[in-house]
Design a protein that fits this description.
By secondary structure, the chain is an alpha+beta fold. The chain is 17% helix and 31% strand. Helix 1 crosses helix 2. It binds zinc ion.
Length: 279
């Protein structure tokens, strides 16, 4: 079995055997010996790609994980489905995977920046739109999240992109080990994770249990613009950013005067003595 979480993801298989086949209307769903196609998960949409059976190429529709198996739905393969044991090859759309990786890494940087700038920051998941360009993060905080706070987060994310920090994967035996090992540990408390956990470590910036795909260094995330339309759903805040072809704006040097990069995470965002803000 290929590990789809390898540092250099494999995006093409040579021949691999069909293990299970199921016809679904005009489509066929297959389980292959070797899986390199990522299903939707952790807010990251599924890969695109195709499976070549003989001289026919079928686009991959849905990718469904069920009972530890990954089923690929092959559009239009229902009338002549591949047979069990037949050798086929798979290719994953490289550009889409790269797009999703950039966006997924951007969500981690936004979370890390949120944690630096806001008090009692608690990650509540992230999402990437189907096209892979717009990302949204959800979180709790006791700080006031206003335009100034979003500008601060924006400035920190931009700084983290410019830092071009390496992104690496590692495994920890438990949440406790993760919390002990990584000074920038961040975990969604409601996920109920246990046992062995895959951790994405952005050097000196963020360490977080994650199954998504990522860029190699934060510089690969590239330019983006942050939206200020803040949604408050119960006590969960949500805001988005869009990856862009070029940097779209600068918020003025004055926004960075007195910026204490190291101390940022301890800097209170509201005057002392005022209660946490709730809207
Ligand atoms: Zn992630």
């Amino acid at each position: 079995m290929t590990n789809i979480f390898l540092r250099e993801p494999k995006l093409y298989t040579n021949l691999t055997a069909v293990r299970r086949v199921s016809v679904v209307g005009t489509d066929a769903a297959v389980v292959l010996d070797q899986n390199i196609v990522r299903p939707e998960g952790g807010g990251q949409p599924r890969d695109h790609g195709s499976v070549t059976v003989g001289d026919q190429v079928f686009p991959i529709g849905q990718v469904v994980k069920s009972e530890g198996e990954t089923w690929l739905r092959l559009s239009g393969a229902g009338s002549a489905p591949p047979e069990e044991g037949e050798l086929v090859s798979v290719s994953v759309d490289r550009e889409r995977r790269a797009t999703l990786s950039k966006s997924h890494s951007l969500t981690h940087l936004m979370m890390a920046a949120g944690k630096k700038c806001l008090e009692d920051f608690d990650s509540k998941g992230a999402a990437i739109d189907e096209a892979g360009q717009i990302v949204t993060i959800s979180f709790r905080t006791s700080s006031v999240v206003d335009d100034i706070a979003i500008n601060m987060i924006d400035a920190v994310v931009r700084h983290l992109v410019a830092k071009d920090a390496p992104v690496t994967f590692t495994t920890v035996k438990s949440l406790e080990e993760g919390a002990k090992r990584f000074p920038r540990w961040r975990v969604d408390s409601t996920l109920g994770l246990s046992g062995k956990i895959r951790v994405v470590d952005i050097a000196g910036i963020d360490a977080n249990p994650c199954s998504g795909s990522h860029v190699e260094t934060t510089g690969d995330v590239g330019p983006y613009r942050m939206f200020h339309d803040l949604v408050l759903d119960g006590d969960i805040y949500r805001f988005s950013a869009e990856r862009t072809r070029t940097w779209m704006y600068w918020f003025g040097e004055e926004a960075l005067i007195g910026f204490d990069w190291d101390g940022l995470h301890t800097r209170p965002n509201r005057p002392e003595g005022t209660p946490p803000h709730v809207r």
